[in-house]
Design a protein that fits this description.
Structural class: alpha+beta
Strand order of the largest sheet: 7-9-10-11-12-6-13
Oligomer: single chain
Number of helices: 7
Distance between the termini: 39 Å
Shape: globular
Helix content: 25-40%
Strand content: 25-35%
């Protein structure tokens, strides 16, 4: 078993592993690997000449205690089924952290789909969020504006300044994030104030909110009412106070 830094020519197999395990749309995965694949920041385990486990990382500035650091986000942590349960990911994560240190990364955060995978690698959650279920209550839908990058960046930076370990975006990174969502047919909804969310509308009348940024908590319910869906699910910071608007809230 060889553990190593990924290479550019690993892109196709890394893409296939991602698609097979995370079952995301072709359009999104193609976009992701064209724009978010950083092999020099990522690592893999290879057995008998084939990649069997991967950790992806992308360099991004992260804000912590008012300062912006050279950071990276780890995601796409996956092992193909025949090689699971062998302790491989723990070794790979140790290699990955060492690699990022060598590259001068000062702060690392994770985006776990399955936190248990990270726990097994001695990586633990350090923030709390609330998963919610919202059902429309008959409010008049607010007036929306066309999504505007400058307005989005202003509200995002105001929102992000309240939290540690969050990506500190400039306009280029805000554009890239918007295009992440657009590549997967996820729509933007923006209030006149600039508060916005991105939501994925499903055929069953349920929507999934992928990102919120707002000035005031009252804007969250306004955005939820603007989404053309019967029920909306999503995630907000655990310090969100108006949990009474939700049918369910689990921190």
């Amino acid at each position: 078993m060889e553990i190593r830094t990924m290479r550019k020519n690993d892109c196709d197999i890394a893409l296939k592993i991602w698609q097979d395990i995370f079952e995301e749309s072709d359009s999104f995965v193609q976009w992701l690997f064209a724009n978010r694949f950083f092999p020099e920041y990522s690592s893999c385990a290879e057995a008998e000449g084939s990649i069997v486990s991967v950790i992806h990382a992308m360099p991004l500035p992260l804000r912590f205690h008012g300062n912006v650091y050279k950071g990276a986000i780890i995601g796409g942590v996956a092992t193909v089924p025949p090689y699971r349960g062998l302790g491989l990911m723990k070794k790979l994560m140790a290699y990955e952290i060492g690699l990022l240190k060598e590259l001068g990364i000062e702060l690392v955060t994770h985006t776990p789909v399955n936190p248990a995978v990270y726990y097994s690698c001695d990586q633990y959650l350090c923030t709390k969020t609330g998963d919610f279920l919202y059902e429309k209550n008959g409010m008049v839908a607010p007036e929306l504006r066309e999504f505007d990058l400058n307005a989005a960046l202003a509200v995002y930076r105001n929102f992000a300044s309240r939290y540690d370990g969050i990506v500190w975006r400039d306009k280029a990174l805000m554009t890239l994030r918007r295009d992440d969502f657009y590549s997967d047919n996820i729509r933007a909804y923006m209030l006149k104030s600039g508060a916005y969310c991105f939501a994925d509308i499903h055929e069953d009348g349920v929507a999934s909110c992928m990102e919120f940024a707002y000035f005031q908590e009252a804007e969250v319910q306004m955005l939820l009412e603007a989404i053309p869906a019967r029920t909306v699910t999503g995630r907000l910071p655990a310090d969100y106070a108006n949990t009474q608007i939700f049918k369910k809230w689990n921190t």
